[in-house]
Amino acid sequence: MLDIQTIREQPDRVKQAMLHKGEKETSIVDELLVLDKQWREAVAATDRLRSESNQKAKEIGTLMSQGKKAEADELIKFTGESKEKIKDLEEQLQMLTAKRDLLLYRIPNLPDDSVPVGHSPEENLIHSTWGEPISNQEWRRPHWELAEEKGWLDFKRGVKVTGAGFPFYVGPLARLQRALIQFFLDEANDAGYTELQTPFFVNEDSARGTGQIPDKEDMMYVVPRDEFFAIPTAEVPVTNFHRDEILKETDLPVKYVAYTPCWRREAGSYGKEVRGLNRLHQFDKVELVHIVHPSTSYDALESLRSDAEQLLRKLELPYRTLLMCTGDMGFTQTKKYDLEVWSPGQKRWLEVSSCSNFESFQARRMQLRFKNIEGQIEMLHTLNGSGLALPRIVASILETYQEPSGKVLVPTVLQPYMRAKELS
RNA sequence: GGAGAGGUGGCUGAGUGGUCGAAAGCGGCAUCCUGCUAAGAUGUUGAACCCUCAUAAGGGGUUCCGAGGGUUCGAAUCCCUCCCUCUCCGCCA
Fold first, then answer.
1. Helices (H) and strands (E) in chain A — how many of each?
2. A7 CA from B71 C1′ (Å)
3. Which nucleotides of B are covered by protein (CB under 7 A)?
4. Residue range A355-397, pLDDT digits in tens
5. Considering the entire predicted model, what is its pTM?
6. Taking CA A76 as the corner, what is the angle to CA A73 and CA A81, rounded to the nearest 5 degrees?
7. Interface confidence (ipTM) of the complex
8. Are A263 and A282 spatial neighbours (Cβ–Cβ below 8 Å)?
9. Which of A87, A198, A386, A420 supports an S-S bond with A237, CB 3.0-4.6 Å?
Protein backbone atom coordinates (compact mmCIF):
# COMPACT_ATOMS: atom_id res chain seq x y z
CA MET A 1 0.00 0.00 0.00
CA LEU A 2 1.31 3.40 -1.02
CA ASP A 3 1.42 6.39 1.25
CA ILE A 4 -1.73 8.43 0.63
CA GLN A 5 0.46 11.50 1.01
CA THR A 6 2.48 10.50 -2.06
CA ILE A 7 -0.70 10.10 -4.06
CA ARG A 8 -2.04 13.44 -2.91
CA GLU A 9 1.16 15.26 -3.74
CA GLN A 10 2.34 13.47 -6.88
CA PRO A 11 -0.67 11.97 -8.62
CA ASP A 12 0.99 12.19 -12.02
CA ARG A 13 4.00 10.27 -10.90
CA VAL A 14 1.73 7.55 -9.53
CA LYS A 15 -0.22 7.37 -12.78
CA GLN A 16 2.95 7.16 -14.84
CA ALA A 17 4.15 4.29 -12.63
CA MET A 18 0.86 2.47 -13.06
CA LEU A 19 1.13 2.68 -16.84
CA HIS A 20 4.70 1.42 -16.69
CA LYS A 21 3.58 -1.51 -14.59
CA GLY A 22 1.13 -2.45 -17.30
CA GLU A 23 -2.11 -1.05 -15.93
CA LYS A 24 -4.38 0.25 -18.63
CA GLU A 25 -6.36 2.67 -16.52
CA THR A 26 -5.19 5.31 -14.13
CA SER A 27 -8.55 6.85 -13.38
CA ILE A 28 -8.66 5.24 -9.96
CA VAL A 29 -6.07 7.76 -8.85
CA ASP A 30 -8.49 10.58 -9.51
CA GLU A 31 -11.35 8.65 -7.99
CA LEU A 32 -9.21 8.07 -4.94
CA LEU A 33 -8.33 11.73 -4.58
CA VAL A 34 -11.99 12.71 -4.73
CA LEU A 35 -12.87 10.10 -2.12
CA ASP A 36 -9.94 11.12 0.00
CA LYS A 37 -11.20 14.69 0.07
CA GLN A 38 -14.68 13.57 0.98
CA TRP A 39 -13.25 11.29 3.61
CA ARG A 40 -11.27 14.07 5.21
CA GLU A 41 -14.27 16.35 5.26
CA ALA A 42 -16.33 13.62 6.87
CA VAL A 43 -13.65 13.04 9.50
CA ALA A 44 -13.58 16.72 10.32
CA ALA A 45 -17.37 16.91 10.58
CA THR A 46 -17.61 13.82 12.76
CA ASP A 47 -14.82 14.95 15.04
CA ARG A 48 -16.39 18.38 15.46
CA LEU A 49 -19.75 16.98 16.45
CA ARG A 50 -18.23 14.44 18.76
CA SER A 51 -16.12 17.07 20.41
CA GLU A 52 -19.19 19.16 21.11
CA SER A 53 -21.09 16.19 22.45
CA ASN A 54 -18.21 15.08 24.66
CA GLN A 55 -17.99 18.55 26.07
CA LYS A 56 -21.67 18.56 27.00
CA ALA A 57 -21.54 15.06 28.43
CA LYS A 58 -18.81 16.21 30.78
CA GLU A 59 -20.89 19.15 31.89
CA ILE A 60 -23.74 16.80 32.70
CA GLY A 61 -21.52 14.99 35.13
CA THR A 62 -20.59 18.22 36.85
CA LEU A 63 -24.20 19.42 37.02
CA MET A 64 -25.40 16.10 38.37
CA SER A 65 -22.86 16.18 41.17
CA GLN A 66 -24.02 19.69 42.02
CA GLY A 67 -27.62 18.52 42.04
CA LYS A 68 -28.70 20.76 39.19
CA LYS A 69 -30.95 18.18 37.65
CA ALA A 70 -33.04 20.48 35.43
CA GLU A 71 -30.02 21.95 33.69
CA ALA A 72 -28.55 18.51 33.25
CA ASP A 73 -31.74 17.23 31.65
CA GLU A 74 -31.57 19.95 29.04
CA LEU A 75 -28.08 18.91 28.09
CA ILE A 76 -29.08 15.27 28.03
CA LYS A 77 -31.70 16.13 25.48
CA PHE A 78 -29.08 17.79 23.31
CA THR A 79 -26.51 14.99 23.55
CA GLY A 80 -29.21 12.45 22.93
CA GLU A 81 -29.94 14.13 19.63
CA SER A 82 -26.31 14.46 18.59
CA LYS A 83 -25.91 10.77 19.28
CA GLU A 84 -28.14 9.99 16.32
CA LYS A 85 -26.33 12.43 14.09
CA ILE A 86 -22.95 11.03 15.08
CA LYS A 87 -24.13 7.54 14.27
CA ASP A 88 -25.16 8.62 10.78
CA LEU A 89 -21.89 10.40 10.23
CA GLU A 90 -19.94 7.40 11.44
CA GLU A 91 -21.72 5.12 9.05
CA GLN A 92 -20.96 7.47 6.22
CA LEU A 93 -17.37 7.69 7.30
CA GLN A 94 -17.03 3.94 7.48
CA MET A 95 -18.36 3.61 3.97
CA LEU A 96 -15.97 6.26 2.67
CA THR A 97 -13.04 4.64 4.43
CA ALA A 98 -13.84 1.27 2.94
CA LYS A 99 -14.19 2.70 -0.54
CA ARG A 100 -11.03 4.74 -0.21
CA ASP A 101 -8.98 1.80 1.05
CA LEU A 102 -10.27 -0.45 -1.67
CA LEU A 103 -8.86 1.94 -4.24
CA LEU A 104 -5.69 2.48 -2.26
CA TYR A 105 -5.01 -1.25 -2.23
CA ARG A 106 -5.35 -1.33 -6.00
CA ILE A 107 -2.57 1.13 -6.65
CA PRO A 108 0.75 -0.62 -7.27
CA ASN A 109 4.09 0.29 -5.82
CA LEU A 110 6.18 2.80 -7.78
CA PRO A 111 9.11 1.31 -9.71
CA ASP A 112 12.53 2.68 -8.89
CA ASP A 113 14.16 4.96 -11.49
CA SER A 114 16.84 2.35 -12.17
CA VAL A 115 14.26 -0.14 -13.44
CA PRO A 116 13.91 -0.47 -17.22
CA VAL A 117 10.49 0.48 -18.55
CA GLY A 118 8.91 -2.40 -20.42
CA HIS A 119 5.79 -4.49 -20.75
CA SER A 120 6.88 -8.04 -21.55
CA PRO A 121 9.43 -10.52 -20.23
CA GLU A 122 11.52 -9.85 -23.35
CA GLU A 123 12.22 -6.39 -22.02
CA ASN A 124 13.85 -7.65 -18.86
CA LEU A 125 17.49 -6.73 -18.72
CA ILE A 126 20.10 -9.47 -18.46
CA HIS A 127 22.05 -8.04 -15.58
CA SER A 128 24.78 -10.69 -15.59
CA THR A 129 25.50 -14.32 -16.39
CA TRP A 130 27.76 -16.74 -14.59
CA GLY A 131 29.19 -20.00 -15.88
CA GLU A 132 28.77 -21.68 -19.24
CA PRO A 133 25.28 -23.05 -19.90
CA ILE A 134 25.74 -26.58 -21.25
CA SER A 135 24.27 -27.08 -24.69
CA ASN A 136 24.81 -29.53 -27.56
CA GLN A 137 24.81 -32.49 -25.26
CA GLU A 138 21.78 -34.37 -26.46
CA TRP A 139 22.41 -37.31 -24.15
CA ARG A 140 21.46 -35.26 -21.11
CA ARG A 141 18.01 -36.25 -19.99
CA PRO A 142 15.45 -34.13 -18.21
CA HIS A 143 15.49 -34.70 -14.48
CA TRP A 144 12.08 -36.36 -14.29
CA GLU A 145 13.04 -39.15 -16.68
CA LEU A 146 16.26 -39.96 -14.90
CA ALA A 147 14.94 -39.58 -11.36
CA GLU A 148 11.80 -41.65 -11.92
CA GLU A 149 13.80 -44.37 -13.61
CA LYS A 150 16.17 -44.51 -10.65
CA GLY A 151 13.27 -44.52 -8.22
CA TRP A 152 14.37 -41.24 -6.62
CA LEU A 153 11.20 -39.36 -7.42
CA ASP A 154 7.77 -40.90 -7.09
CA PHE A 155 5.00 -38.86 -8.63
CA LYS A 156 2.55 -41.75 -8.93
CA ARG A 157 2.50 -42.51 -5.25
CA GLY A 158 2.33 -38.79 -4.57
CA VAL A 159 -0.87 -38.71 -6.58
CA LYS A 160 -2.21 -41.69 -4.69
CA VAL A 161 -1.43 -40.24 -1.29
CA THR A 162 -2.32 -36.61 -1.93
CA GLY A 163 -2.64 -35.50 -5.52
CA ALA A 164 -0.70 -34.11 -8.46
CA GLY A 165 2.15 -31.81 -7.52
CA PHE A 166 2.94 -33.58 -4.24
CA PRO A 167 5.77 -35.94 -5.13
CA PHE A 168 7.77 -38.21 -2.85
CA TYR A 169 11.51 -37.76 -2.88
CA VAL A 170 13.13 -41.11 -2.25
CA GLY A 171 16.50 -42.08 -0.80
CA PRO A 172 19.37 -40.09 -2.35
CA LEU A 173 17.10 -37.33 -3.58
CA ALA A 174 15.46 -36.89 -0.19
CA ARG A 175 18.94 -36.65 1.27
CA LEU A 176 20.05 -34.22 -1.41
CA GLN A 177 17.19 -31.91 -0.46
CA ARG A 178 18.06 -32.11 3.19
CA ALA A 179 21.69 -31.35 2.33
CA LEU A 180 20.68 -28.34 0.27
CA ILE A 181 18.50 -26.94 3.04
CA GLN A 182 21.28 -27.36 5.54
CA PHE A 183 23.81 -25.81 3.17
CA PHE A 184 21.61 -22.80 2.40
CA LEU A 185 20.88 -22.17 6.07
CA ASP A 186 24.52 -22.48 7.06
CA GLU A 187 25.59 -20.04 4.36
CA ALA A 188 22.95 -17.53 5.46
CA ASN A 189 24.02 -17.85 9.07
CA ASP A 190 27.58 -17.12 8.01
CA ALA A 191 26.34 -14.06 6.13
CA GLY A 192 24.79 -12.65 9.30
CA TYR A 193 21.19 -13.79 9.00
CA THR A 194 19.26 -14.89 12.08
CA GLU A 195 17.62 -18.23 11.55
CA LEU A 196 13.92 -18.57 12.26
CA GLN A 197 11.72 -21.61 12.41
CA THR A 198 8.27 -20.36 11.65
CA PRO A 199 4.69 -21.52 11.78
CA PHE A 200 3.65 -23.22 8.55
CA PHE A 201 0.12 -21.92 8.94
CA VAL A 202 -0.87 -18.31 9.44
CA ASN A 203 -4.02 -16.47 10.35
CA GLU A 204 -5.93 -14.03 8.23
CA ASP A 205 -4.23 -10.91 9.58
CA SER A 206 -0.84 -12.24 8.56
CA ALA A 207 -2.04 -13.20 5.11
CA ARG A 208 -3.34 -9.70 4.73
CA GLY A 209 -0.15 -8.19 6.10
CA THR A 210 1.97 -9.45 3.25
CA GLY A 211 -0.75 -8.93 0.68
CA GLN A 212 -1.80 -12.52 -0.04
CA ILE A 213 -5.34 -11.44 0.64
CA PRO A 214 -7.46 -9.97 -0.72
CA ASP A 215 -6.08 -10.38 -4.24
CA LYS A 216 -3.96 -13.57 -4.15
CA GLU A 217 -6.30 -15.58 -1.98
CA ASP A 218 -6.64 -18.34 -4.52
CA MET A 219 -2.97 -19.23 -4.38
CA MET A 220 -3.24 -20.50 -0.81
CA TYR A 221 -4.54 -23.69 0.73
CA VAL A 222 -7.04 -22.97 3.47
CA VAL A 223 -7.82 -24.87 6.65
CA PRO A 224 -11.44 -23.78 7.06
CA ARG A 225 -12.15 -25.30 10.44
CA ASP A 226 -9.43 -23.29 12.15
CA GLU A 227 -9.32 -20.40 9.70
CA PHE A 228 -5.68 -20.90 8.87
CA PHE A 229 -3.81 -20.54 5.63
CA ALA A 230 -0.96 -22.83 4.61
CA ILE A 231 1.94 -20.53 3.87
CA PRO A 232 2.78 -20.04 0.18
CA THR A 233 6.24 -18.78 1.19
CA ALA A 234 8.18 -18.16 4.38
CA GLU A 235 7.95 -14.48 3.53
CA VAL A 236 4.51 -14.49 5.14
CA PRO A 237 5.39 -15.63 8.68
CA VAL A 238 8.83 -14.02 8.64
CA THR A 239 7.76 -10.56 7.52
CA ASN A 240 4.78 -10.69 9.88
CA PHE A 241 7.14 -11.51 12.75
CA HIS A 242 7.43 -7.78 13.44
CA ARG A 243 3.96 -6.74 12.32
CA ASP A 244 2.56 -3.82 14.36
CA GLU A 245 5.90 -3.20 15.99
CA ILE A 246 8.12 -0.17 16.35
CA LEU A 247 11.77 -1.17 16.17
CA LYS A 248 14.71 0.85 17.40
CA GLU A 249 16.93 2.41 14.79
CA THR A 250 19.95 0.90 16.51
CA ASP A 251 18.55 -2.59 15.90
CA LEU A 252 18.68 -2.15 12.15
CA PRO A 253 19.22 -3.81 9.79
CA VAL A 254 17.38 -6.99 10.69
CA LYS A 255 18.11 -10.03 8.55
CA TYR A 256 16.28 -13.33 8.81
CA VAL A 257 16.58 -16.66 7.10
CA ALA A 258 13.99 -19.39 7.32
CA TYR A 259 13.49 -22.77 5.76
CA THR A 260 9.88 -23.79 5.21
CA PRO A 261 7.82 -25.90 2.92
CA CYS A 262 5.63 -23.76 0.67
CA TRP A 263 2.16 -24.62 -0.50
CA ARG A 264 0.66 -23.15 -3.62
CA ARG A 265 -2.51 -24.12 -5.35
CA GLU A 266 -1.18 -22.95 -8.71
CA ALA A 267 -4.64 -23.05 -10.17
CA GLY A 268 -4.57 -22.95 -13.92
CA SER A 269 -1.03 -24.25 -14.43
CA TYR A 270 -0.56 -27.16 -16.79
CA GLY A 271 1.53 -28.69 -19.56
CA LYS A 272 5.23 -28.67 -20.24
CA GLU A 273 5.93 -25.82 -17.85
CA VAL A 274 4.97 -27.97 -14.92
CA ARG A 275 6.68 -31.24 -15.88
CA GLY A 276 8.69 -32.90 -13.15
CA LEU A 277 9.91 -30.55 -10.49
CA ASN A 278 9.29 -27.39 -12.47
CA ARG A 279 6.16 -26.44 -10.60
CA LEU A 280 4.71 -28.17 -7.56
CA HIS A 281 1.95 -27.66 -5.05
CA GLN A 282 4.35 -28.27 -2.21
CA PHE A 283 8.01 -27.43 -2.33
CA ASP A 284 10.84 -26.47 -0.02
CA LYS A 285 12.45 -23.09 0.06
CA VAL A 286 14.92 -21.12 2.12
CA GLU A 287 13.91 -17.50 2.28
CA LEU A 288 15.97 -14.41 3.08
CA VAL A 289 14.33 -11.30 4.52
CA HIS A 290 15.81 -7.89 5.23
CA ILE A 291 14.14 -5.19 7.30
CA VAL A 292 16.14 -2.02 6.90
CA HIS A 293 16.38 1.73 7.28
CA PRO A 294 14.74 3.44 4.28
CA SER A 295 17.99 5.03 3.19
CA THR A 296 19.73 1.67 2.77
CA SER A 297 17.18 -0.52 1.05
CA TYR A 298 18.76 -0.42 -2.40
CA ASP A 299 22.14 -1.37 -1.02
CA ALA A 300 20.38 -4.13 0.86
CA LEU A 301 18.84 -5.34 -2.38
CA GLU A 302 22.28 -5.70 -3.96
CA SER A 303 23.58 -7.55 -0.94
CA LEU A 304 20.55 -9.82 -0.91
CA ARG A 305 21.03 -10.62 -4.58
CA SER A 306 24.69 -11.27 -4.04
CA ASP A 307 23.93 -13.60 -1.10
CA ALA A 308 21.60 -15.63 -3.29
CA GLU A 309 24.03 -15.66 -6.21
CA GLN A 310 26.83 -16.95 -4.00
CA LEU A 311 24.82 -20.10 -3.38
CA LEU A 312 24.57 -20.85 -7.08
CA ARG A 313 28.25 -20.16 -7.56
CA LYS A 314 29.21 -22.48 -4.75
CA LEU A 315 26.98 -25.15 -6.24
CA GLU A 316 28.69 -24.40 -9.57
CA LEU A 317 25.43 -24.12 -11.43
CA PRO A 318 25.47 -21.72 -14.41
CA TYR A 319 22.88 -19.02 -13.98
CA ARG A 320 21.85 -15.60 -15.11
CA THR A 321 20.49 -12.60 -13.28
CA LEU A 322 17.69 -10.56 -14.76
CA LEU A 323 16.70 -7.08 -13.80
CA MET A 324 12.97 -7.21 -14.27
CA CYS A 325 11.33 -4.48 -16.31
CA THR A 326 8.46 -2.42 -14.91
CA GLY A 327 5.79 -4.52 -16.57
CA ASP A 328 7.14 -7.89 -15.42
CA MET A 329 7.95 -7.24 -11.80
CA GLY A 330 4.66 -7.35 -10.03
CA PHE A 331 2.41 -5.15 -8.03
CA THR A 332 4.28 -4.73 -4.77
CA GLN A 333 7.91 -4.35 -5.82
CA THR A 334 9.92 -1.27 -6.66
CA LYS A 335 12.82 -3.27 -8.06
CA LYS A 336 13.33 -6.95 -8.58
CA TYR A 337 16.05 -9.32 -9.73
CA ASP A 338 15.33 -12.88 -10.83
CA LEU A 339 17.97 -15.57 -10.67
CA GLU A 340 17.58 -18.28 -13.27
CA VAL A 341 19.54 -21.48 -13.25
CA TRP A 342 20.30 -23.38 -16.43
CA SER A 343 18.58 -26.68 -16.95
CA PRO A 344 20.65 -28.52 -19.57
CA GLY A 345 18.22 -31.45 -19.86
CA GLN A 346 15.33 -29.16 -20.70
CA LYS A 347 17.50 -26.51 -22.36
CA ARG A 348 15.80 -23.70 -20.55
CA TRP A 349 16.30 -21.29 -17.70
CA LEU A 350 14.48 -21.96 -14.44
CA GLU A 351 13.71 -19.25 -11.94
CA VAL A 352 15.13 -20.20 -8.56
CA SER A 353 15.17 -16.89 -6.76
CA SER A 354 13.54 -13.56 -6.96
CA CYS A 355 14.99 -10.72 -4.89
CA SER A 356 12.83 -7.69 -4.36
CA ASN A 357 12.69 -4.37 -2.64
CA PHE A 358 9.24 -3.36 -1.46
CA GLU A 359 10.37 -0.11 0.15
CA SER A 360 7.59 0.73 2.63
CA PHE A 361 4.76 -0.87 0.63
CA GLN A 362 4.48 -3.96 2.84
CA ALA A 363 5.62 -2.16 5.97
CA ARG A 364 2.82 0.38 5.75
CA ARG A 365 0.27 -2.33 5.43
CA MET A 366 1.73 -4.08 8.44
CA GLN A 367 2.47 -0.96 10.46
CA LEU A 368 6.09 -2.09 10.67
CA ARG A 369 7.98 0.98 11.82
CA PHE A 370 11.02 2.24 13.65
CA LYS A 371 11.83 5.17 15.85
CA ASN A 372 14.67 7.19 14.41
CA ILE A 373 17.39 8.91 16.37
CA GLU A 374 15.36 12.12 16.56
CA GLY A 375 12.56 10.11 18.09
CA GLN A 376 10.27 10.27 15.08
CA ILE A 377 8.49 7.22 13.82
CA GLU A 378 9.02 6.13 10.22
CA MET A 379 8.07 3.18 8.08
CA LEU A 380 10.77 0.58 7.55
CA HIS A 381 11.70 -0.91 4.22
CA THR A 382 11.34 -4.64 3.63
CA LEU A 383 13.06 -6.89 1.12
CA ASN A 384 13.03 -10.56 0.46
CA GLY A 385 14.58 -13.12 -1.80
CA SER A 386 14.77 -16.85 -2.10
CA GLY A 387 18.00 -18.39 -1.05
CA LEU A 388 16.98 -20.66 -2.74
CA ALA A 389 13.92 -22.60 -3.94
CA LEU A 390 14.74 -26.30 -3.85
CA PRO A 391 12.98 -28.26 -6.59
CA ARG A 392 14.44 -26.43 -9.55
CA ILE A 393 17.88 -26.54 -7.98
CA VAL A 394 17.45 -30.27 -7.60
CA ALA A 395 16.31 -30.45 -11.21
CA SER A 396 19.31 -28.50 -12.38
CA ILE A 397 21.72 -30.59 -10.30
CA LEU A 398 20.23 -33.81 -11.69
CA GLU A 399 20.79 -32.52 -15.21
CA THR A 400 24.05 -30.61 -14.78
CA TYR A 401 25.85 -33.22 -12.69
CA GLN A 402 24.55 -36.06 -14.83
CA GLU A 403 27.09 -38.27 -16.65
CA PRO A 404 26.47 -40.18 -19.89
CA SER A 405 26.17 -43.39 -17.85
CA GLY A 406 23.27 -41.92 -15.90
CA LYS A 407 25.37 -41.46 -12.80
CA VAL A 408 24.77 -38.18 -10.93
CA LEU A 409 27.64 -36.56 -9.03
CA VAL A 410 27.22 -34.51 -5.89
CA PRO A 411 28.32 -30.85 -6.06
CA THR A 412 31.55 -30.42 -4.10
CA VAL A 413 30.09 -28.16 -1.41
CA LEU A 414 27.34 -30.67 -0.69
CA GLN A 415 29.61 -33.69 -0.40
CA PRO A 416 30.25 -33.21 3.34
CA TYR A 417 26.51 -32.91 3.93
CA MET A 418 25.74 -35.94 1.77
CA ARG A 419 28.75 -37.92 2.93
CA ALA A 420 29.02 -39.07 -0.67
CA LYS A 421 30.41 -37.99 -4.02
CA GLU A 422 27.55 -39.34 -6.07
CA LEU A 423 23.85 -40.00 -5.68
CA SER A 424 23.22 -43.64 -4.95
C1' G B 1 -11.87 -30.85 25.06
C1' G B 2 -13.95 -29.63 30.53
C1' A B 3 -13.74 -26.22 35.02
C1' G B 4 -11.93 -21.70 37.05
C1' A B 5 -9.07 -16.92 36.95
C1' G B 6 -7.47 -13.03 34.08
C1' G B 7 -6.09 -9.61 29.74
C1' U B 8 -4.73 -1.68 31.48
C1' G B 9 0.92 2.53 28.61
C1' G B 10 8.27 -0.17 27.29
C1' C B 11 7.57 -3.29 32.10
C1' U B 12 5.11 -4.05 37.11
C1' G B 13 0.50 -2.56 38.65
C1' A B 14 -3.90 0.81 40.68
C1' G B 15 -8.49 2.02 38.80
C1' U B 16 -15.62 -1.25 39.04
C1' G B 17 -20.36 4.48 35.27
C1' G B 18 -18.69 11.26 34.81
C1' U B 19 -13.06 16.01 35.97
C1' C B 20 -9.23 8.81 33.47
C1' G B 21 -5.07 8.62 28.11
C1' A B 22 -5.41 6.59 32.85
C1' A B 23 -2.33 6.71 40.04
C1' A B 24 2.26 4.74 41.70
C1' G B 25 6.82 2.31 40.92
C1' C B 26 10.51 0.65 37.44
C1' G B 27 12.70 1.62 32.84
C1' G B 28 13.89 5.45 28.90
C1' C B 29 15.28 10.54 27.72
C1' A B 30 17.04 15.64 29.14
C1' U B 31 19.32 18.88 32.54
C1' C B 32 21.79 19.57 37.09
C1' C B 33 24.81 17.62 40.98
C1' U B 34 28.50 14.40 42.78
C1' G B 35 35.33 12.48 41.44
C1' C B 36 34.44 7.08 41.25
C1' U B 37 32.36 2.70 38.56
C1' A B 38 27.43 4.38 39.73
C1' A B 39 24.19 7.22 43.29
C1' G B 40 20.99 11.53 43.83
C1' A B 41 17.73 15.89 42.33
C1' U B 42 14.37 18.08 38.89
C1' G B 43 11.75 17.75 34.60
C1' U B 44 10.06 14.81 30.68
C1' U B 45 8.23 10.24 28.61
C1' G B 46 2.40 5.90 24.19
C1' A B 47 0.20 5.46 19.18
C1' A B 48 -3.02 6.62 14.90
C1' C B 49 -5.86 10.11 12.25
C1' C B 50 -8.05 15.10 11.05
C1' C B 51 -7.64 20.50 11.21
C1' U B 52 -4.39 24.81 11.70
C1' C B 53 0.53 25.87 9.84
C1' A B 54 5.91 27.74 5.88
C1' U B 55 6.14 19.71 4.02
C1' A B 56 9.33 24.35 10.73
C1' A B 57 8.06 25.14 15.82
C1' G B 58 3.64 25.26 18.15
C1' G B 59 -1.62 24.79 18.76
C1' G B 60 -6.75 22.56 18.47
C1' G B 61 -9.74 18.09 17.95
C1' U B 62 -11.04 12.77 17.54
C1' U B 63 -9.97 7.65 18.48
C1' C B 64 -7.33 3.72 21.11
C1' C B 65 -7.29 0.34 28.41
C1' G B 66 -6.97 -7.87 24.08
C1' A B 67 -10.60 -7.60 19.32
C1' G B 68 -15.53 -6.70 17.65
C1' G B 69 -20.55 -5.50 18.86
C1' G B 70 -24.26 -3.56 22.56
C1' U B 71 -26.47 -0.65 26.92
C1' U B 72 -25.98 4.72 28.46
C1' C B 73 -26.38 11.76 27.81
C1' G B 74 -21.50 9.54 29.33
C1' A B 75 -17.80 3.00 29.56
C1' A B 76 -11.09 0.93 31.11
C1' U B 77 -15.40 0.24 34.40
C1' C B 78 -22.01 -2.90 32.81
C1' C B 79 -23.81 -6.82 28.87
C1' C B 80 -22.79 -10.23 24.49
C1' U B 81 -19.44 -12.76 20.98
C1' C B 82 -14.57 -13.95 19.76
C1' C B 83 -9.19 -14.27 20.59
C1' C B 84 -5.25 -14.92 23.94
C1' U B 85 -2.72 -16.02 28.79
C1' C B 86 -2.53 -18.64 33.51
C1' U B 87 -4.17 -22.78 37.05
C1' C B 88 -6.46 -27.65 37.56
C1' C B 89 -8.43 -31.99 34.95
C1' G B 90 -8.44 -34.81 30.35
C1' C B 91 -5.58 -36.09 26.00
C1' C B 92 -0.99 -36.37 23.60
C1' A B 93 4.54 -36.29 20.36
1. 13, 16
2. 42
3. 18-19, 47-51, 60-63, 73-74
4. 999 999 989 888 888 888 777 888 999 999 999 999 999 999 9
5. 0.91
6. 135
7. 0.85
8. yes
9. A198
